[in-house]
Amino acid sequence: MERAKQGSATVLFVDASHFVMGNDFLGCIYGKVRRFIKTYSGRMRYNVLGAIDFASKKVTVVTNDTYINAIEVGNLLKKVAIEYAGKAIYMVLDNATYQKCAYVKDLALQLGINLVYLPTYSPNLNLIERLWKFVKFRLRIKYYDNFEVFKKTIDSLVNSTDKENRIAIDKLINKKVQLFDDLVSVNKNTFVHNDLSSNVCSSANGVVSAA
């Protein structure tokens, strides 16, 4: 992150999000009478595989309405290689099979892209997750009954991260990352931060609390 801020390297956080029309993004009608409205079955899905630049907040994307697979990841790698040609590129991503297969690793090696895989079950370290939360929050303020409009709205939000929504994204994606390195085990299923460990007590029924 420091190198990215200084301009000596490009750090991109990578992940896919799947936006389902008529499922997560339903409008709300408040009233005394129960009402029923038609909606989609949830089969109309817009997939966005994105790579957000930690420094500039610009997002490079590959999209479709079918599935994200290794070929799509490869297409994203090629776009990134062209866009950031001549720079040291680090792409931070999770361990999804289609991102960690031989095809993706070999292509990244050919393109001179460094792949940095996160530890298992560590979504807190992939900062692009915050972007997807931002986009979904904006989508939920309206009901969509047209798939093309739905897709264009998502595209517009994603493309705004380094423009009109730059201030909001800067607050979401920064050097503040939630880490768990300083946790201390209290018992088999309970952990606390190291600076709180001296104030932890256990009750007779096994419930642990911090003073």
What is the CA-atom radius of gyration, in angstroms?
21 Å
Taken together, the total number of domains comes to: 2
Low-pLDDT stretches are 200-211
Return the average pLDDT rounded to an integer. Answer: 85
Enter the CATH topology name of the largest domain: Nucleotidyltransferase, domain 5
Shape descriptor reads globular
CATH class of the largest domain: Alpha Beta
Key words describing this protein structure:
211 residues, alpha/beta, 2 domains, 5-stranded mixed beta sheet, 9 strands
Any overview of this molecule?
The structure is a single chain. The protein has 211 residues and is of the alpha/beta class. It folds into two domains: 2-172, 2-Layer Sandwich (Nucleotidyltransferase, domain 5); 180-211, no CATH class. It has six helices and nine strands. The chain has helices spanning 2-6, 70-83, 102-111, 128-139, 147-159, 166-172, and strands at 10-20, 45-53, 59-64, 89-93, 113-117, 183-187, 190-193, 200-202, 208-210. The strands form three sheets. A five-stranded mixed β-sheet has the order 3-2-1-4-5, sandwiched between helices. The chain has a two-stranded antiparallel ribbon with strand order 6-7. A two-stranded antiparallel ribbon has the order 8-9. α3 (102-111) links the parallel β4 and β5 (113-117). The chain is globular. The protein starts with a helix and ends with a strand.
Please give the structural blueprint.
Blueprint: H1 2-6, E1 10-20, E2 45-53, E3 59-64, H2 70-83, E4 89-93, H3 102-111, E5 113-117, H4 128-139, H5 147-159, H6 166-172, E6 183-187, E7 190-193, E8 200-202, E9 208-210
Parallel strand pairs: 1-4, 4-5
Antiparallel strand pairs: 1-2, 2-3, 6-7, 8-9
